[in-house]
Automatic annotation (TrEMBL):
Bilayer topology: Multi-pass membrane protein
Record protein name field: Major facilitator superfamily (MFS) profile domain-containing protein
Pfam families linked to this entry: TRI12
Transmembrane portions of the chain: 45-70, 82-100, 112-130
Subcellular location: Membrane
All copies of domain Major facilitator superfamily (MFS) profile, residue ranges: 47-146
PANTHER family in the cross-refs: MAJOR FACILITATOR SUPERFAMILY, PEP5
Top-rank taxon: Eukaryota
Record keywords, A-Z: Membrane, Transmembrane, Transmembrane helix, Transport
InterPro entries tied to this protein: MFS_dom, MFS_Str1/Tri12-like, MFS_trans_sf
Organism the protein comes from: Cryomyces antarcticus
Length: 146
């Protein structure tokens, strides 16, 4: 038999759990079992920063190329290929979601996140070193897969 005490704690043997409370001078009641203040270390902030960059950097090419894609393609001498910059990313990320989605549930998210960040990094390098619009399209496809 399970009994719930007013604090929400239950005991299976039918006994009530005794809790001690402290009545302060101003009439406030507090539990004597104080909760520790959470500590956020620099390592935690570093992990939050890396995860934020891993999520955010993969989406930066879309608004960037939406704004300057035409100028980039014109500068590279292949203005008609600008229409493939963003669709290359969209198609590859769609395929990646289908492949990685269920597999991350089965195999764990850590190494898929690390691998995706590395692939995204390679895609950014390809875009940055592209000599023509075809290189930019290939880099966008690689970035989308990451």
């Amino acid at each position: 038999m399970s009994i719930e005490t007013p604090s929400g704690k239950a005991m299976d043997d039918g006994r009530l759990q005794k809790e001690e409370y402290n009545v302060e001078a101003n009439g406030a009641v507090s539990n004597l079992e104080e909760e520790e203040e959470p500590v956020v270390t620099p390592k935690t902030w570093f992990v939050v920063f890396i995860l934020s960059m891993g999520y955010g950097l993969s989406f930066w090419p879309i608004p960037t190329f939406a704004a300057i894609g035409g100028q980039v393609a014109t500068e590279l001498g292949e203005a008609s290929k600008v229409i493939w910059f963003i669709p290359a990313w969209t198609l590859s990320i769609t395929v990646c979601f289908m492949l990685a989605g269920a597999n991350t549930d089965l195999l764990g998210r850590r190494w898929f996140l690390v691998g995706g960040n590395l692939i995204c990094f390679v895609g950014h390098l390809v875009i940055g070193t592209a000599k023509g619009a075809t290189g930019v399209i290939a880099g966008m496809a690689i970035t989308g897969f990451g």
